[in-house]
Design goal:
The chain is an all-alpha fold and about 180 residues long. It is built from seven helices and no strands. The chain is elongated, with a radius of gyration of 32 Å.
Length: about 180
C-alpha cells in the first residue's frame, strides 16, 4: 500500500467510527476507533485524538475501567493538547457520582413496543404526550415584615425628581420643535 491509500483508509475508518458514535452505536464505534488506532502511531497527534475518542466510546459503552485506564495512559502522551484533554476527562471520569432523587427526573415513556402505524398516528395527531406526576404544591410561608424605624430613613429631598422632570420636558420640547420645523 502507498502512503496515500493508508492515509485515506485511516481517514475513512476514523470517520466511520465517529459516525457510528454520533448515531449511538457505541460497540461499532469502539471497534472502529480500535481499528483506526491500529493504523496510526499511538504517540502521534492523530493517535492521541483517536484514543480520546476511544475513551469517550468506552465511557458511553459503560466500560468505565477501560476508559479510565486509557485516559490515565494518555496523561503521559507526547502531545501537550492530548495530555491536557486526558487530564480534564480523567478528572470527570473519576469524580464521585451524585445521587439524584426520583422527583428530579422526568420519566420518558418507552415507545419501543409501538408498531410503525402507531408511531405515525402519534406523530401526525400530536397526541404523544409525556405523563408526569404533578408536584404536590406546598403553601408558601408568608414573609415576616420587620417594622422600619422612620428616624433612620433619609427623607431629605435630593432634587432628583426635579432634574429628571426638567430633562424629560427638554427632550419632549426638542422633539416637538423639530417636528414642526421639518
Amino acid at each position: 500500500m502507498t502512503a496515500d491509500s493508508d492515509n485515506s483508509e485511516v481517514e475513512q475508518t476514523f470517520q466511520a467510527a465517529q459516525s457510528a458514535f454520533d448515531r449511538g452505536n457505541y460497540r461499532e464505534a469502539t471497534a472502529g476507533f480500535e481499528q483506526t488506532l491500529a493504523l496510526v502511531a499511538p504517540n502521534s497527534i492523530l493517535g492521541g485524538e483517536v484514543q480520546m475518542w476511544l475513551v469517550t466510546a468506552y465511557q458511553a459503552k459503560g466500560q468505565m475501567s477501560d476508559a479510565i485506564a486509557l485516559c490515565k495512559k494518555l496523561t503521559h502522551h507526547p502531545d501537550l493538547k492530548t495530555r491536557k484533554e486526558a487530564k480534564r476527562v480523567l478528572y470527570i471520569l473519576e469524580a464521585p457520582k451524585l445521587k439524584s432523587r426520583p422527583e428530579w427526573l422526568t420519566q420518558i415513556p418507552d415507545l419501543t413496543g409501538l408498531s410503525e402505524s402507531e408511531m405515525g398516528d402519534r406523530q401526525t395527531k400530536g397526541t404523544a404526550k409525556i405523563l408526569a406526576k404533578p408536584l404536590a404544591s406546598k403553601p408558601k410561608p408568608t414573609p415576616i415584615v420587620e417594622p422600619v424605624d422612620r428616624s433612620q430613613v433619609n427623607t431629605k429631598d435630593n432634587q432628583f425628581v426635579w432634574v429628571a422632570l426638567i430633562a424629560v420636558l427638554i427632550v419632549l420640547g426638542s422633539v416637538v420643535w423639530t417636528g414642526w420645523s421639518a
